[in-house]
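Exercise 7. Predict the structure of Peptide deformylase from Flavobacterium akiainvivens.
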Amino acid sequence: MILPIVAYGDPVLRKKGIDIPQDYPNLKQIVADMYETMYNAYGVGLAAPQVGLAIRLFVIDTKPFSEDEDLTKEEQAQLADFRKAFINPVIVKEEGEEWGFNEGCLSIPEVREDVYRHERITIEYYDEEFNKHTDVYDGLIARVIQHEYDHIEGILFTDRLSPLKKRLIQKRLQNIMEGKTRPDYKMKFVAKKGR
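Solution. The predicted structure, encoded as C-alpha cells:
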C-alpha cells in the first residue's frame, strides 16, 4: 500500500526513533509498504519517520544511481543490486574524507543542496528476519544510508547546510509546511493553507 509521505514541518521528522522488537506488529507489511511508497515517489531511500512512524527502520534501493555513466561498471553493478531494510541500525564508525553530493529528500520536495558526508561507514543493524549484521559501506551506498540514518535520529539534510544556504531555502521550506508544494506523490502536510 502506498503511504502518504510526511512533509517538512511535521514533528515526527524531529523525533529520535525508538528501537523495535522482533514481534513489532505488521513489521513485514510496513517494510513492504515503505518500499512501495519509495518506488512510487522515485526515491532511493525512505525512513519510517517519513511515513509517520518514529521507529528505527529505513529501506534503501540504490538501483536508480546505477545508471550514472560517470561510475565504473563495478560501481554500477554494486548500486544496481543494493536493496535492503535496516532495522534498529547504529552507525558505529564514520571514516574517510567528507565529500559533497547534491541531496534531496522525499519529505522536502523541490529542495536540493550539496551535503558533505563521510565516504565510509560501519553499521550494525538487523535485517527483516532479525538477523544481526555489521557491514562496511562506502561511496553512494554509504551516503544514502547516512541520509536515512539521520532521519531516524530526527535530523534532516537541511540541518547540515550553512546558515546562508538555510536562509536561501527558507521560503521553499515554508511553502512545503503550508502545503503549497505539489509533488507528484501522496504527501501529508502539517498546515493546509493556500488550498
